[in-house]
Amino acid sequence: MWRRTYLLLVLVRLWFALSSSYLHPDENFQGPEVIAGQIFSYPVRLTWEFTSDHPIRSVFPLWPVYGLPMLLLRWLWIGNGNDGEIPPIAVFWTLRVLMFIISFVLEDWAIHELVHSPRHRRVAVLLVASSYVTWTFQTHTFSNSIETLVVAWSLVLIERILETSQNSSLLASTVLGVVAVFGVFNRITFPAFLLIPGLRLIPHFTNRPLSLVVMAASGLLTFLIAISLDTSFYTPHSISWSDLYRHPVVTPWNNLRYNMSPSNLAEHGIHPWYQHLLVNLPMLIGPAVGLLFTQPQVSLRLYSAISGVFVLSIFQHQEARFLLPTIPLLLSSLQLPKNPKYLKIWVGTWIAFNTVLGLLMGVYHQGGVVPAQVFLSKQPDATQAVWWKTYMPPIWLLNGKNAVLRTEDVPGMTGDTLLEELARIATCDTPADRRSQEYLKEPNGTYLIAPLSTTWLDPYLDNKGLDGLRFREVWRYRKHLNLDDLDWAEDGFWPTLKRVVGRRGLAAWRVTKSCGRPART
């Protein structure tokens, strides 16, 4: 029975991986977009993390995770006799399937390795597989999702080092050195999860110093490779050995220095120290929080999660996704209620919690952004696109159209200022704009992409007069929710919910304006 349930949950995970939800801009701008610009001729927009004088993001972990699959996909594309570049949306879905595969294989495999009791292992695997975090965050291209796998396998390697023979211990130590450096360059928070588990290695290294030597050697070699790749990426000319010696780019160090500054963190949002513990963790695992405090199973996994939460709580900027590595560790450290009545209630609550959050985050959350970019890439007249009250759109999905299409991202712009901007860049209204599909033959076109829940636009959308802006809806996607547009204080709870959920969706309007006397038709 549990095998069939697990197989069903794997299919659910795949279904969510193939959904177009957009959880956070970082899933594009800190990973795929950077490497896509190196391998293909797609237009890319490097964010400040990559363009500052002291860049804080490493490209070293991006190459094996995203670069190799892209290179393989390009090789297969060319090998099959196809001309031109691979459509970026094909690359996008390939990476989603890749994230599903490595989550399904590596995350679940790590749980099998870490949980030794066969009976408890089944429960742990099902809990992790039925979590909406596994369905959504782990199937998206987040550095946090990669960190989850690196932390889990670091724990597996630590156990192998402690439990196996000398030769196997040396192999595991070598791999751990590589994985540990990879984890640090992926996210500087990685060591926080190994503070307590790492202490168990001290007696082993004392008795077998050769294990420490090979781990340090493999880690040093990996460190040098990472520094070389980053320095090459961030140096405008071909690097030499002197560049590596005199001007190395050490992104983890830059990242640590940046995050140690309270003024820098204030730009991203300051949170109280208990944000992770009292808000983010319950939001991620829901009813499992109660079992975590009442029926935990003490294990290396639990200690790793505790150390991670403790260290991350010291930093004042705390987002829920920072805790992703703790989720499989915590869920695999729980004991379900033994009373059948309570067990049935808990399981029902767990299913309901993950179903609701899974659909919300895995299907509807900013779900129209990616399809909207695909739509704009196919509009021959599109030369201006204004995105209002949405996440930053990934421009690498424009399929080369960025050469003629200017994307303007103005999520927090006031309505009056938006109208002024549209009036400045809108094209003149012509008879073609009033006929079906004729506007596509125009040389220029201005598009506004905004959620349907933005009721502020309503009075302007039906303008049929001769003066002012005209909005012609040309595209709509219903599976889109804008959770950043919740205004409980001003509108009240029910009106806000009715507006955001009842009017869910994302639309694209072609915007024109009156220019002098109207043309006769």
Strand segment count: 6
The mean pLDDT is 89
State the helicity in percent bands: 55-70%
Structural class label: alpha/beta
Cα-to-Cα separation, first versus last residue? 70 Å
Shape: globular
Descriptors for this entry?
6 strands, Mannosyltransferase, alpha/beta, 2 domains, GPI-anchor biosynthesis, 521 residues, six-stranded mixed beta sheet
What's the structural blueprint in terms of helices and strands?
Elements: H1 2-17, H2 26-29, H3 32-39, H4 48-51, H5 62-79, H6 88-114, H7 118-129, H8 132-135, H9 143-163, H10 166-186, H11 195-199, H12 201-207, H13 209-234, H14 241-246, H15 251-259, H16 262-266, H17 275-285, H18 288-294, H19 300-312, H20 326-331, H21 340-364, H22 369-377, E1 382-387, E2 406-409, H23 415-425, E3 427-428, E4 445-451, H24 458-461, E5 469-477, H25 488-491, H26 493-502, E6 506-513
Parallel strand pairs: 1-2, 1-4, 3-6
Antiparallel strand pairs: 4-6, 5-6
Helix pairs in contact: 1-6, 1-7, 3-5, 5-6, 6-9, 9-10, 10-13, 12-13
